[in-house]
Amino acid sequence: MENYAIENANQILVNFSIIFVTGAIFAKLADYIKVPDVVLYLLAGILLGPQVFNLISIPVNSTINQLVLTLGASVLLFHGGLGVSFGTLRKVWITLLLLSTVGVLLMVAIVGLTAHFVLGISLFYAFLLAAILAPTDPAALVPIFLSVKVRERLAQTVLSESAFNDATASIVTFAILGVITSGKLSLSGSLLKLIIMAGGGILVGALYGLLAGYLISDKTHDIFSVDAQVLMFPVIIASYMTAEHFGASGFMAVFVAGLIFGNLDEIGWAVKESAQKEVQSFIHIASLLLRITIFVLLGSNVNFSILLQYFWQGLIIVGVFMFIARPIVVLLCTYPDKIARWERREILFMFWTRETGVIPAALAGLLITMKIGNAEMISSITFLAVFATLSIQATTTRFVARRLNLLDAVSQNTLDETLRR
């Protein structure tokens, strides 16, 4: 038993060594050919996985894969929260509220009905697929907006949506799963669960964000400011686990913790600049390593036989998802917000920023673990949606932002200099 444990541990270390080395190489290649790195990480995963060279094998329903997805999404959401300002949220809160509630339900309805007619499956399984596709992806959006500097409120609106709509989409997913497994539907129960998950996640995240900020701020004479980065993983993990323990949204909690931590100046708590830089540097490195691992593993677990079986139907569903459902959702959720005063070009840009990835991958993996009917079909179409949105939308984000004249001055000048060379 002891030898087996050692061999298993060694194999895991070999897998992760291959993932990190390959990720570093493909990151350089992505920078050279000017495409988002996550697209090449997916391709790297396909090449390394059992379907091609079989150099790594970490099943989608394994504990390690689920740990990577959960921790990775949590760190990336915390990272996203760090970059969102209270000032921006105050200006666009109506849009965010609508996108994260009504928008998710509209997306599920439109994509679910499409899947029902195209695949010929029951409405419950069709809506389950749509609910899994509904969350946007912080793992893709955070690095994109770190490199493509669009208008601040626009970038932060899209990033915030990727955190806030996770709770709603997860609740809808589990509500549909409950109907499928038990045969009972309770609208009042689902609404109560939404309130508990969203509200509880906000409360837990705020408490941990304030606690972490308090420990490194002038309120405690900077007691932890020298080792501020040491607090980050405990805060992220504790936020997620506490929220999940009480039936709240762990992903909401870690995003809010990052949001609070990144806006300590708004509540009058001073943090040393050196501590802020340490935290940003640590989170940036952790996000990079986890982003590599997440997308390489996602690519390595694609089942080509199932994917090819449902390829054309999946392509229709993904097309409706990207080019019909998303524009309808954005239009209906931005129109009532007279405070934000969205410009037409900003709305057009939001049409195009609908990348999906980590959360849908985690939910699809959960279906396989639970042995839910149609799980492999749903997982394959989810991968198709991930690959399509990342390869089409993520790779053209800079181009679209530039065509719509939404790049800020610094990014625009940098891009112009690069083009002149």
Walk me through this protein's architecture.
The chain has 19 helices and no strands. The model is unreliable at 411-421 (pLDDT under 50). The chain has one domain: Na+/H+ antiporter like fold (Up-down Bundle), CATH 1.20.1530. The chain has helices at residues 2-33, 37-48, 63-82, 86-100, 102-119, 123-133, 138-147, 152-182, 187-216, 232-245, 250-261, 273-300, 304-309, 311-334, 344-352, 358-370, 375-393, 397-403, 409-420. The protein has 421 residues and is mainly α.
Helix-strand layout with pairing:
Blueprint: H1 2-33, H2 37-48, H3 63-82, H4 86-100, H5 102-119, H6 123-133, H7 138-147, H8 152-182, H9 187-216, H10 232-245, H11 250-261, H12 273-300, H13 304-309, H14 311-334, H15 344-352, H16 358-370, H17 375-393, H18 397-403, H19 409-420
Helix pairs in contact: 1-2, 1-12, 2-12, 3-10, 3-11, 3-12, 3-16, 4-8, 4-14, 5-6, 5-14, 6-8, 6-17, 7-8, 8-9, 8-11, 9-10, 9-11, 10-11, 14-15, 14-17, 16-17
Q: What's the end-to-end separation, in Å?
A: 60 Å
Helix vs. strand class: mainly alpha
Range of strand content: under 5%
Number of DSSP-assigned strands: 0
Radius of gyration computed on alpha carbons: 21 Å
Average the pLDDT over all residues and give the rounded result. Answer: 86
Count the helices. How many?
Answer: 19
CATH topology annotation: Na+/H+ antiporter like fold
The low-confidence parts are 411-421
Topology as a string of helices (H) and strands (E):
HHHHHHHHHHHHHHHHHHH
What would you say the CATH architecture is? Answer: Up-down Bundle
User: Tell me, what is the CATH class?
Assistant: Mainly Alpha
- The count of domains is 1
The largest sheet, given as strand count, sense and whether it forms a barrel, is: none
Helix content: over 70%
Give the overall silhouette: globular
